[in-house]
Amino acid sequence: MAETMEAPLPAHRLGNDLQINIDFSQVDLDSIQLPPGEDFGIKSDDEEEEEESLEFETGFGNVIVVDNLPVVPPEKFEKLEGVVRKIFGQIGTIRDRGLWMPVDSETQKTKGYCFIEYNTPQEAQTAKDQTNGYKLDKAHVFAVNMFDDFEKYMKVSDEWTPPETKPYKPGENLQQWLTDEKGRDQFVIRAGTDTEVYWNDHRQLKPELVYRRSFWTESFVQWAPLGTYLATIHRQGAAIWGGATGFERLMRFAHPQVKLIDFSPGEKYLVTYSSHEPSNPRDTQRVTLNIFDVRTGKVMREFKGSADDFATGGTGGVAGVSWPVFRWAGGREDRYFARIGKNAISVYESSTMSLLDKKSIKVDNVMDFSWSPIDPILALFVPEGGSGNQPARVSLVQIPGREELRQKNLFSVSDCKMYWQSNGDYLAVKVDRYTKTKKSTYTGFELFHIKERDIPIEVLELENKNDKIVAFAWEPKGHRFAVIHGDGPRPDVSFYSMRSPNNVGRVSKLATLKGKQANALFWSPIGRFVILAGLKALNGQLEFYNVDELETMATGEHFMATDVEWDPTGRYVATSVTSVHEMENGFNIWSFNGKLLYRIPRDHFYQLLWRPRPPSLLSPEKEEEISKNLKKYSKKYEAEDQDVSLLLSEQDREKRKKMQDEWLGWVNEWKRLREEEKLLRQELRDGEPSDEEEEYEAEEVELEEVLDVAEEIAPLIE
């Protein structure tokens, strides 16, 4: 508590008192009134109090108060202070002598709270947000407040007054777009300086514009996983947009120079990333990661370090940093997220934004990990160690209990990559192994049956072990997978099932397609159909394949195509040529069976992203019922399609009639002009009245013309 002190009268004021010989202690100052608007250079007491209040806020805005600390005797002061510094020092820089724990003068024990002073108010606010509710142990859960808040709390009246009742104002329905009567899907594109959102209107064979904005983002746009928000990137940070009728800004996330973002699967959190060049060229880049609460915009946790600290594991990212740095556990609960470090996997609880059980999972030489898409199960890959004496291994670890569910040792491993099936039923581990001579490698697959007892593992090797694996992809929500394998420009494509013909849990090959111009696989989100695509160097060759019937539905080509993306319902496919090529920029929309619906050329084309849909609210039983009675439900839509078809036919007729009328009008206009110029043409023909060449009489006229005159001196001949 600050003590109230009476300030001495300034010397110049004291001199004036003596000169006019007035005893100010006898003067009633409250009775003195100054003219309106005049203060004679004397500040009022109210103004001084206001200045003191502002000075108080700016002076203590970087101080927090931590309550519910353990009460300890003097011999444990140093240990407690070390624990507090370790926890709060990770969030920001604590000033010199910036940690003070009051001591009871009678017992000589701490009072159970402390004051911490950071360098900046932002660090203090972050520390308060991240550590309030931190569980030190069962008996001590931190209660953290800003020091400035205490003055606010002291002003709260002791008398209760009922809160003001505000009229209910319903919020915008952010899922309004899902209620489209035509059942259409949206997509966003970026071309030039414009970002545009469209409906995919297959009936009209063209997209319908929903929203357009120039300079909406400074680098890229990204949909949230459930399609609720569209995120844009700016120098000051990121922003999310959405709404019932258009795209209004819903929240800003302050993070200067942000380069990358990532949503949690349930859209509760947003991770932002930035890097900063060091002042010393020998130092590594400094990296900042923030985790925001999407609805409130508050920073839930901040991570800082060198780029090397975040470069372990995974592929992609920027400046050597693996992205996403934090990987979220499967499901929409957003309960856990994890990152890979040196010899450890750090798993965090989103509710506290702190390490699970306050410690990382120690795994020597761990190189990569991935979450099951559904369950809190980690798949870890550890390469060989001890100069080959220790085998590589893949482990499955259950969270939060850290129980190892299954482990598989692998030998002579060159590289390893893990692929989860979308329902978390299977895990495929692609293993590149050295041959005995160590001069070459061959590839095989370790297939985990996750949902079966004891998690059995099958080994799959291709008929030709030396075939290079070009691409691998699971069928979404299914039991099949496809592999592109081979070394030449026309590799083979093989399809496998995790079930044998007798429905026994054994992998079996369904078919192999020989010599396909394909280097990428794109399964429909509902399974069954797959696109075999030859992108970039293979000039956009497309084959639409039905895996149920093991037959090709159609082939097509989108010259120089760089990207292929299915819509979330599996009805339509977008292929595009982005600005990596200078020519042919734009996108095509196809039906699931390979029919080209429409083409949209756009210069400087950068992105096309379908808007994701949240999972269906229908039960599996209800979906099965709809599937069985599809003909009954389809009658309504067939009638609508027929109406649209007739409308399109009528529109087409009107368009042709309009073009014909324009042509006839143009012809009549030229006839009129020709008639007006008839006299002029007759004059140019020396009075010949007819325009028909057949009526002309030809007359030959000889004309002599002197071409040149030259003088020469002839030599004298004797």
From TrEMBL:
<feature type="domain" description="RRM">
    <location>
        <begin position="62"/>
        <end position="149"/>
    </location>
</feature>
<dbReference type="Pfam" id="PF00076">
    <property type="entry name" value="RRM_1"/>
</dbReference>
<keyword id="KW-0694">RNA-binding</keyword>
<dbReference type="InterPro" id="IPR035979">
    <property type="entry name" value="RBD_domain_sf"/>
</dbReference>
<dbReference type="InterPro" id="IPR013979">
    <property type="entry name" value="TIF_beta_prop-like"/>
</dbReference>
<dbReference type="InterPro" id="IPR012677">
    <property type="entry name" value="Nucleotide-bd_a/b_plait_sf"/>
</dbReference>
<dbReference type="GO" id="GO:0005852">
    <property type="term" value="C:eukaryotic translation initiation factor 3 complex"/>
</dbReference>
<dbReference type="InterPro" id="IPR034363">
    <property type="entry name" value="eIF3B_RRM"/>
</dbReference>
<keyword id="KW-0963">Cytoplasm</keyword>
<dbReference type="GO" id="GO:0016282">
    <property type="term" value="C:eukaryotic 43S preinitiation complex"/>
</dbReference>
<feature type="region of interest" description="Disordered">
    <location>
        <begin position="682"/>
        <end position="701"/>
    </location>
</feature>
<dbReference type="GO" id="GO:0031369">
    <property type="term" value="F:translation initiation factor binding"/>
</dbReference>
<dbReference type="InterPro" id="IPR011400">
    <property type="entry name" value="EIF3B"/>
</dbReference>
<comment type="function">
    <text>RNA-binding component of the eukaryotic translation initiation factor 3 (eIF-3) complex, which is involved in protein synthesis of a specialized repertoire of mRNAs and, together with other initiation factors, stimulates binding of mRNA and methionyl-tRNAi to the 40S ribosome. The eIF-3 complex specifically targets and initiates translation of a subset of mRNAs involved in cell proliferation.</text>
</comment>
<dbReference type="GO" id="GO:0001732">
    <property type="term" value="P:formation of cytoplasmic translation initiation complex"/>
</dbReference>
<dbReference type="Pfam" id="PF08662">
    <property type="entry name" value="eIF2A"/>
</dbReference>
<keyword id="KW-0648">Protein biosynthesis</keyword>
<comment type="similarity">
    <text>Belongs to the eIF-3 subunit B family.</text>
</comment>
<protein>
    <recommendedName>
        <fullName>Eukaryotic translation initiation factor 3 subunit B</fullName>
    </recommendedName>
</protein>
<comment type="subunit">
    <text>Component of the eukaryotic translation initiation factor 3 (eIF-3) complex.</text>
</comment>
<dbReference type="InterPro" id="IPR015943">
    <property type="entry name" value="WD40/YVTN_repeat-like_dom_sf"/>
</dbReference>
<dbReference type="InterPro" id="IPR000504">
    <property type="entry name" value="RRM_dom"/>
</dbReference>
<comment type="function">
    <text>Component of the eukaryotic translation initiation factor 3 (eIF-3) complex, which is involved in protein synthesis and, together with other initiation factors, stimulates binding of mRNA and methionyl-tRNAi to the 40S ribosome.</text>
</comment>
<dbReference type="GO" id="GO:0003723">
    <property type="term" value="F:RNA binding"/>
</dbReference>
<keyword id="KW-0396">Initiation factor</keyword>
<dbReference type="GO" id="GO:0033290">
    <property type="term" value="C:eukaryotic 48S preinitiation complex"/>
</dbReference>
<feature type="compositionally biased region" description="Acidic residues">
    <location>
        <begin position="689"/>
        <end position="701"/>
    </location>
</feature>
<dbReference type="GO" id="GO:0003743">
    <property type="term" value="F:translation initiation factor activity"/>
</dbReference>
